[in-house]
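Changelog note: in this version the structure field was regenerated for every chain. One regenerated record is shown below for reference.
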Amino acid sequence: MKKMAVLLMAAFMMSATVPVFAAQMTKEEKDQCLLASKNCGMEVDTLQKKIKKLNAEIKKGKKVYSTDEIKKLQQKLDEANALLDDIMKGGN
């Protein structure tokens, strides 16, 4: 329970201090941020928002991403869903 409270408090504190940099990111930076969590700058998303973004990107399929990139996106989605499940169970 303490773990969940700390995670929620940290997420809240970070979300309150994040300026809007998403509009300034190039397409390549956004792709790197999604695929490898690199060059994200100050962009912080809630876990649910990240899951929604990953699902949207995966749906674009091979028109936009290579097979390896789709696998990486799916792996990130699986990790985010597992973390969300862990948080919902109370971190046990």
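Spot check on this record: The mean pLDDT is 74. The longest helix spans residues 67-88.
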